[in-house]
Design a protein that fits this description.
By secondary structure, this protein is an alpha/beta fold. It has a single domain, classed as 3-Layer(aba) Sandwich (Rossmann fold), CATH 3.40.50. Helix content is 44%, strand content 17%. An eight-stranded mixed β-sheet has the order 1-2-4-3-5-6-7-8, with helices on both faces. Helix 4 runs antiparallel to helix 8. It is globular. The C terminus is likely disordered.
Amino acid sequence: MPFIRAGGSTVYYDATAPRDGPTVVFGNSLGTNVHVWDAVVEAFAAAFRVVRFDMRGHGLTDAGPEPTMDDLASDVVALLDALKLERIRYVGLSIGGMIGQRLAAAHPARVEALVLCATANRIGTPEVWNQRIEAVRDGGMAAISSGVLARWFTPETHERRSEEIAGFRNMLERTPAAGYIGACAAIRDADLLADDARIACPTLVVAGAADPVTPPADAFALRDAIVGARAQVIAGAAHIVPAERPQEFADLVLPFLRASRPAGVL
């Protein structure tokens, strides 16, 4: 298994060949692991080296202390350093997109292009996240899984792709409770509007048309907060857009990432 020591933690990651090609790093959503990107990896790997990783307290990566959004962005920088990646294109989903905003604002030399999917500069209210944290503390991950899955995918996907939904339930419920709680607290305490004003790289914001967590209005507000950003909405998708509508996601994001390559890079 590909583990690496980064920032004092053992991090699980997955990387496709070639080692020296332009690299896209995928940042996962809350309660998921690298497999949230399985449906789109093949399409992206035809054009880029793809690096996926389990963020702190998720999947097979160490939990460590309860993180802030700064900590989670620093974790990405530590991973890039460990993998000897100077500049990358970053695609972040939900909290992964929040991490991407902080990463691009605080470390602009590392990020050539940014895709922010199903995210916002502030998600939910402190009361919502405190209630979620208490529910997990009291009843474990199973106490919240049905409600979370209802927000992750549309009713049509629940009906037609029941085996996949069952797999995502397993992914969510097997997320370490401490890691999930820590990430909830990081989201609760993050307000990234000031970060957005500092982002200078090409940025694409993607929303699911049926996302109740970060609806299209949040995507358009995020677009307006980042100079030069554009936003697109994918029909028939709720919160986990790349898994629910992988072809549409790849068709939208891949041309953006290709066009964002620096001069002289094929």
